[in-house]
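User: I'm putting together notes for a lab meeting next week and I want to include a structural view of one of the chains we've been expressing. I don't have a solved structure, so I'd like a prediction I can at least talk through. The sequence is below, exactly as it appears in our construct file.
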Amino acid sequence: MVNRDLGHTLRLIAKHGDEVFYEGEIAHAIVEDMRTHDGLIAEADLRGWRTTRNTPLWGTYRRYASRATGPPAAA
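Assistant: Thanks for the context. Below is the predicted structure for the 75-residue chain, given as structure tokens.
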């Protein structure tokens, strides 16, 4: 399976960092797709987004340790 769009996206991020996703070529493509398909994400949404790091949730299940990210509202 070949996914050229994903490959292009990952190369752009590798070359330009996360700003290409939130403010550059990828952001423009996302916003254009949202406009075309009546989506809810606008340029200001991407530009204003800030990531957060949360401590993973740890637990055990049948003697196996497991971890997971918290729910999106946990920030």
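A couple of points you could mention at the meeting. The two ends are 36 Å apart (CA to CA). Residues 4-16 form the longest helix (13 residues).

User: Perfect, that's what I needed.
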